[in-house]
Amino acid sequence: MQEYDLPIIVTNQGPAFSALLKVIRLPGSWYAVIWENAERYASFSQDRTEKNGGHQHLSDRDFLDRVRLVSAFTQAIDFEFAEVL
User: Fold this and answer.
1) pTM of this prediction?
2) Side-chain half-sphere exposure of 81, counting CA atoms within 13 A
């Protein structure tokens, strides 16, 4: 298991705002939460499938880019990393 806690900037939900991306990376799946505060957050996840090819082979940067893609597709939340990875 690997955990990520990264500051992000959400860019498409009105004016840009700071939030925290928390991700738990497991061997066959991952779970993420974009957290602004207790009243405003979104969670999403992905399991390994034949179509997505899993994520174990991905570098940290490529994996986090996949998390960003899934966030945009499933939650309609676009974000940038606040720090260079």
Assistant:
1) 0.89
2) 15
